[in-house]
Amino acid sequence: MASSVLEIIKEEVTCPICLDLMVEPVSTDCGHSFCRACITLNYESIKGKEEEGICPVCGVTYLFGHLRPNRHVANIVESLLGFKSNPEEEQKVNVCVQHGEKLQLFCEKDMVAICWLCERSKDHRGHQTALIEEVAHKYKEKLQAAMEMQMANKKKCDEWECDLQKERTFWETQIQSDVENVQMEFKRLRGFLDSKEKNEVQKLMQEKEDVMNSLAESQNEVMKQREAVRDLISDVEHQLDCSTMEMLQESDLNTDTAQNGPKKTEKELSSFRPERHAESVSCSRDPASNLQ
């Protein structure tokens, strides 16, 4: 009884293509499961449009990109591999379910293992067949070639990844160096500008002090002149208020004085505005031009 159950379980997890326990089992859209390598080779040999394949068991089309791992079958296979069975039970797995004959042939059109009676049946009559051992050998050669190609591709990917990492490191170092150089240059420029600003402000403050002192002196001079003019006006008014005789008697003394104006004329008063140095004027208009 246990042997019969075990046989049924093995049949369920046996790949319909290679007739061995499934390795890395995957399921198609129709629900049938196969070894990933076997269904991949089957798909490559008969694939249609838009990544469509044909299920070797039921003939229903499926999308190769929709293959999904069958973890349940993988767990069963893993359990079976850990269970020791006798050679007779193992041989029963390779027997045709329909005819009870040993599965020795492989139908290349339907991509399934068959017995010699299946080959003569209407389902497989006229189909190209070959011994399972020969087909398995070819499959193994294809798998080996595919493995070698993928290993070569993996090596290329590893080399590309290494080159990209080197390029990444180079650019990170280069750009970081450029950033540090830019920061250093701007730090130097800020120091230069701060020093230049300080010098220019000191010059302007000194110029302001000189101008204010000059204007203060000029203001004092103007005030003195104003007082002198005020005194002359008072004298003239006094003479105008005197009698004729008094006015004439004092005319020799005051007429010349009354006709004299302030010591500085209006034109001369304009000279009270101090002249600034050309460098200071230029700096006030365009400070950036003095940074050269």
Give the gist of this structure.
With 292 residues, the chain is mainly α. It contains nine helices and eight strands.
Keywords:
Znf_RING, Herpes Virus-1, 292 residues, three-stranded antiparallel beta sheet, Znf_B-box, Tripartite motif-containing protein 12A isoform X8, cytoplasm, 63% helix, zinc
Order of strands across the widest beta sheet? Answer: 2-1-5
**What low-confidence regions span 5 or more consecutive residues with pLDDT below 50?**
none
Output the helix-strand order: HEEHEEEHHEEHEHHHH
Mean pLDDT: 80
What spatial form do the alpha-carbon principal axes imply? rod-shaped
- Total beta strand runs: 8
- The proportion of residues forming helix, as a percent range, comes to 55-70%
Largest sheet: 3 strands, antiparallel
Rg computed from alpha carbons, rounded to a whole number of angstroms: 57 Å
Quote the beta fraction: 5-15%
Descriptive notes:
The protein has 292 residues and is mostly helical. Among the domains are: 94 residues, Zinc/RING finger domain, C3HC4 (zinc finger) (Herpes Virus-1, 2-Layer Sandwich); 100 residues. Helix content is 63%, strand content 8%. The chain is built from nine helices and eight strands. The strands form three sheets. A three-stranded antiparallel sheet has the order 2-1-5. A three-stranded antiparallel sheet has the order 7-6-8. A hairpin with a 5-residue loop joins strand 1 and strand 2. Helix 1 packs across helix 4 and helix 6 runs antiparallel to helix 7. The longest helix is centred in the middle third of the chain and has 110 residues. It is rod-shaped. The model has no long low-confidence stretch (mean pLDDT 80).
